[in-house]
Structures are given as C-alpha cells and as structure tokens.
Amino acid sequence: MSFTNATLEDNSTSSKDGRPSIHPQMEQIVFPYLSVRSETFRGLEKLRSEGWKSTKGDNHFKQQRKQADEADERTKHFFFESMQKIGIQLQAATGVLVLPCENPQVLDLCMAPGGYTASALRYNPHASVSAISLPTALGGHEVLVSKQYLEHRIDLRYLDITMLAAEFSIEEIPIDHPDAADFLTERPFHGTSFDLVFCDGQVLRTHAAHRSDYREKNEATRLTCSQLILAMQRVKTGGTLVMLLHKVEAWDTMELLRTLDKIANIQLFKPTKSHATRGSFYLVAKNIQPNKAEAKSAVKGWKERWKAVTFPVARIEDSEDALASTHSDEQSKELSGLLEDFGERLIELGEPVWQIQKDALGRAPWLQKKREMVAIC
Questions:
Q1: Which of 62-71, 235-244, 268-277 shows the lowest mean pLDDT across its residues?
Q2: 297, exposed or middle or buried, with CB in 10 Å at 0-12, 13-18, 19+?
C-alpha cells in the first residue's frame, strides 16, 4: 500500500479558491475516471467545489473543530451520545454489532469517549471489551463509558498506539531518536483473538503539543498503519473490522479497500447525520481471513510504512517526499493500474457514500444561500 495521498491530503495547503491542494495524479487520473463513470461523484465534486469557495462553509467547519477541541461537559456527552446513535444506525445497516458467539471479545482501538464500546456492550450482554485510548494528559479524549462497564467488562489501557514499536516488529530504537524513551515494548492483548475490532482513531489537534516535530506531517499515516497492524494481528479468522476512513476516492483509501476486498467481505457505511457533509465514512469488513497471503503481505507493508515515516528523522527536510518516493510517471502507472483492477468495484462501494454527502451538501445553508443569490441575479 502506498499511502501516498494520505499525507498530502491531511497536510495540504489551500489553493486560491480555498480548495485543498491535491496530488496531481488524483486530478489528472482519478477524478476524470470517476466523473465519467459516476453521475453521483460528478455531482458531489461540483458541490464540493462550490463549498470550498464559501466563507460561510469555512466558518461552519472551523466552528465544528473548535467545539471538538474545546468541548465542555455538555458537548463531550453530546459527542458520546452521537457515537451511540451511529452505533444504532451501523447495526441497522450492517448487522455488525450483534455477535453470534456466546461470550464475544471486542477490541476498541482509540476508544475514547467510548460510544462504540457502549454500543457493542448493549447489543452483546456477555461481551468483554479490550481497549486502548490516548491518555488525557497527552491530549486524548475523556472516557465516558459507565463506571460499571469499566470495572467489570472493559480492560482499558491508556497509551499512544503509534508508539508500539515491538508490535510493529522493531527490535532496536536509535538512541538519538527524539522519542527514544517513549517507544513501547509491550504488546497489548497479545494472545487474545477478537470477534470485532473498532479502529476509530483520528489525529487529534489536542495531541499536537505532545508530539515531536518530525511526526506532524505523517501522523495520519502513522496512526492508520498502527491501527491496521494491531487489528489484523488480533482479529479472529472470520472476525469483523469497523474502521473510520476519509474520502473513498483518496489514493490510500482505494488501496486499503482493494486490499481488504481480497481478504474479507466489505461494505461501506456512512451515517446520515453526524458525518453527512464530510467525506468520512466507515469500512465494515466481515469474515476477515488474517492468515491469507494477501493479509500477511498487507501487514508487512503497513509495518514498513510505519517505520519509514517514524525513523527518517535526520531527513526532516525531505519529509515531503517520504511518501512520494517514486517518480511521477511510476505513480501514474500505479494509480491507473489500481483503477483498471478495482475501479468498477470502487464505484459500486462508493456511490452510496457519495450520495449521502451530495444530498447533505445540497441542503447545506452556505450553499443554498449562494444559489438563491445566483437565481436572483
């Protein structure tokens, strides 16, 4: 997996019209491919372009980010309850939360505030949950799951999941590494296999003050790889993965979907309210076969990628090229091959997600008012 576009999107600058800078191959290859074949994607891109030019839209999302970063108690509980509502929608759409075994084991990576753990326990009265969450002292969210659950049904470890060096097959840490003392040798829940794994981690702005400078550009890739490695090394054969992703058409997302489509039965789920105007959605992968050759190859690749963006700290000035080391012609060939191999399936998976975002943006106040002004003129 290349993960080339992950960092470019997560850390992109804006163009003059406010639209995030996009990898040239995405504009030259992916967008035309999808626009010709999917009316839904074509309509969504039109609305996105309008939205990127809207100051009111910008202010809307800035306010959402501010609320998330500076949440008071009421807002924290609102987000916690919203996650549980998403859990109800997720179950209704996919049936993924009702586990058929007698005493199911659930793993929740990047748990806080814990809405998905609460949902899993509600649907499975005899389930046990193992969880990892970033400590609040490092900018992590507060865990809001009930005390009764925490005491009797949840084994919660507070740590930075991106620092599990031993889990990622790193045997020796350079002594001059800025985080040398912070890498972890433990392997959480090693020896336990899980029926259901949640990967809901996002790079937190509240964590930025606690991260070394070298991590900033590629932290999204470090977090994605960390979750995937741990998930694939803990999930049972036949188990299920639920993972938060962003933009079906992003290069890293397409690569991941193609990989998991080979080792699991996958579908995409997008909440109709909480995530509606954004590009975020959930990958649901059922009947995972972690021992297949494709799965083992994927884990090896994720470990290599995590290592590549964690240890080249002596070359920070070259970090822009860390995830784009191949020549642009080779990248174009790789991307064209991905679409030739997986393009039709990608559209099949992506259209319901794009449609929900398209409908939501079509109702967005900052776009409706703009159209009204155009109509008046």
A1: 62-71
A2: middle
From its phi and psi, is residue 137 left (phi > 0), alpha (psi between -120 and 50) or beta?
Answer: alpha
Q: Positive or negative, the Cα torsion across 371, 373, 376, 377? A: negative
Torsion angle in degrees (nearest 10) through CA of 345, 280, 224, 222: 130
Report whether 119 contacts 142 (CB < 8 A).
no
DSSP strands (E only) in 2-136: 105-109, 128-133
Alpha helices in 153-269 (DSSP H): 219-232, 251-261
Which stretch of 144-148, 193-197, 221-225 has the lowest confidence by average pLDDT? 144-148
Mean pLDDT taken over the chain: 86
Name every residue whose Cβ is closer than 8 Å to that of residue 151 and which is 6 or more positions away in sequence. none
Q: Give pTM, 2 decimals.
A: 0.87
CA distance 322 to 280: 25
Q: How many CB atoms lie within 10 A of CB 265?
A: 12
Report residue 22 as tokens: 């996009």
- pLDDT band at residue 209 under the 50/70/90 scheme: confident
**What does DSSP say about strands 154-158 and 265-269: parallel, antiparallel, or unpaired?**
unpaired
Contact 163, 184 (CB under 8 A): yes
d(CA 130, CA 148): 15
The one-letter code for the residue type at 70 is E
Give, in degrees to the nearest 5, the angle at Cα 158 between 154 and 159.
Answer: 135
Of 173, 175, 117, the residue nearest 146 (C-alpha):
117
- End-to-end CA, the chain: 49
Burial of 37 (0-12, 13-18, 19+ CB in 10 A): middle
Token digits for 212? 């070394």
